Amino acid sequence: MGAGAARRLDGVSMGGVRATARIRATADGRGGTSLPVLEGDGPLALRRTRGSGHEARVMLVGAMSGPLGGDRFRIECGVGDGARLRVGSAAATIALPGQVKGEARYDVRLDVADGGELRWLPEQLICAGGSDLRVVTRVEAGAGARLVLREEQVLGRVGEEPGRLGSRLTVRVAGRTVLDQELGCGPGAPGGWDGPAVLGGYRAVGQLVVVRPEFAKEPVPARVLGETAVLAPLAGPAVLVSAVAEDALRLRRVLDEALAGLDA
Amino acid sequence: MSRAALLVLADGRFPAGGHAHSGGAEAAVKAGRITGAASLETFCRGRLHTAGLVAASLAAAAVLGADPAELDAAADARTPSPALRVAARKLGRQLTRAARATWPSDELDALARRFPKGAHQPVVLGLVARAAALEPVDAAHCAAYESVSGPASATVRLLSLDPFDATGVLARLAPDVDRVADQAVEAARRAIDEGVDALPAGSAPLLEIGAEAHAAWAVRLFAS
Predict the structure, then answer these.
(1) Which of A201, B64, B122, B132 has the fewest Cβ atoms nearer than 10 Å?
(2) How does A7-16 read in b/e, with b if 16+ C-beta sit within 10 Å?
(3) Where are the domains of chain A?
(4) Which of residues 118-157 of A touch B (CB under 8 A)?
(5) What ipTM does this complex have?
(6) What pLDDT, in 10s, does the model give residues A49-70?
């Protein structure tokens, strides 16, 4: 019985849904990328879509709602030397309150080997009113790995008070932590989260992390991208674009422009 | 421990250069996000529970004997804004210099040799507290309090805010400062067992964004 069936038959159980999806990308030896592991699980369904050039593409397709309170989702994605993978999602993820008490948990673990490239570009995470979600994203990148990672959080649906969100993003390159950031917001979060030091009433917040070995020799200078966004070189071969915005659309525009600027 | 040593270290007149920094208040005032005592209080509360908790944990971990170089790297990873990393190191260097004259210690000498451009200020603060025979919770209190006292006194100058109102803000934040100091010590003890990744990493996007904009201004009252 899959996780989806478990929710239908057992929706009021104390456990919540547990699901782990796995992706493994390797070089196919002919200049392309193969996916020896592509395992969805319940609400985390995976589809391989048409790639471009040497890059394989995978789409995360939500097969049911969630995460809801008490759910435990996990995605593990590994990219080997010479492989290039792009992962997106078909729609925004909406955290909702569940019948099960307690927080939901979403773990993302990304490993990019030396010589591998991952573009991790999911749609937004929307924290609906009454939801309670903890997201932990950990990236381990090899010394010569390339990464683009986007995270966007939207606090509440339109006109709605946000749910509770705790989000931690840790990026390690060659065994050294270059970024460790935690954001807490919504009801019950540490005081001042919506005030002028943290989110200042903005309802969309995003991070774009770009890791490239060439940044070690040619660091990108810090750049102010308007009133509420900045591109900052980290202490390592990586940059962070950090932005807040009124809504998801404006946030995406800023992050897209920043990425295009780095690619130019 | 000597309670008076804590007062010396926490005194705003301790010659470590902190008065030249606004803790992000100058950028927030310019952006219209701090306009009076009420918004100053929310600003300080947000800074306390993010950057303040991180600083307090680093300081407490340094008192407990964690490797200063590892703590310094952890501070880097928790400070994505290069302008804030530069400011933290400058403050660290000034504190190192003042403390080596005040509480001479081999550990501070070693730190100065290892980080000629300065280590992150909270790491230095922890080692200074150690040299002054203070406890982890003392260093955590110092760091947590500094995270709000700097913006409060800067706002008095920036907005001509009544100093009584600014001090009232600090008094109302006192219970939160105590809580953050306790959380910081707990996290620091965990970091001794599990490594520095166990330290809190609270981020404040508007502080990070504002710091870079502020660093690019041609004329400013405060260094950060």
Answers:
(1) A201
(2) beeeeeeeeb
(3) 17-189+197-224+231-263
(4) none
(5) 0.96
(6) 988 889 999 999 976 667 888 8
